[in-house]
Amino acid sequence: MKILLAEDEKRMAQALIELLRQEKYDVDHFEDGLSALEALETEVYDCAVLDVMMPELNGFQVARSARKKGIRTPILMLTAKSEIDDKVTGLDAGADDYLTKPFMSKELLARIRALLRRNYDTKDDELSFGDITLNTNSALLTCSSNGQSVRLGEKEYRILEYLMSNKGSILTREQLALKIWGYENEAEYNNVEVYMSFTRKKLAFIHAHTQIKAVRGIGYELRYDDAQGDQNV
């Protein structure tokens, strides 16, 4: 699981990074709200932990901007403020939960686990993009324009589910390897390319116009093209 941590107080940030990494979370740390927002726009995170009082943009502004851009990453707000109005402001800005400093480590971890479970449990039974629909229970991929379907293998399903859950984003090989195989090494990067090819063949089999495009030097993204040009390899 990958977590974004936005906290400008150095001692607090270091303590939280160590705590989260002890729990086997992959952590990206940012010291200002603008950098955190840019990361949310370009990377894929399972959860974001935002301090309210930060330079550039505060936590409220980061959450509000992220939600306006359609970013659905679960957000936990951290703040020294305990007034009801501040909590309401945070929740109205798009935060999913709110934790007031000082707090116990166990409570923070429990709140994060709850957000991760909630995010997983509320996933739709079907994901759609362009002319394809993916049933998340049966792993059945269907082309809406012609009704043709094919069942995906486990890795094919996880690749397409990850891409469809983050439509509009370019996912790197590193992100795909970490999400699907759980760790990073060159063997897993090769696996990404192999299973990406398998997944493309399933899209071609049902004659979908939705394609997985390679963005040179960056990664992969989903694109829908009525004319359906050639796929990048």
Name a few traits of the molecule.
233 residues, 11 strands, alpha/beta, five-stranded parallel sheet, disordered C terminus, four-stranded antiparallel sheet
Provide a descriptive summary of the structure in words.
It is a single chain. The chain has helices at 10-22, 33-42, 59-68, 84-93, 105-121, 154-165, 173-181, 186-205; strands spanning 2-6, 26-30, 47-51, 75-79, 97-100, 126-129, 132-135, 140-143, 149-151, 210-215, 219-224. With 233 residues, it is α/β, with parallel strands linked by helices. A 5-stranded parallel beta sheet has the order 2-1-3-4-5, with helices on both faces. The protein starts with a strand and ends in a 9-residue tail after the last strand. The model is unreliable at 229-233 (pLDDT under 50).
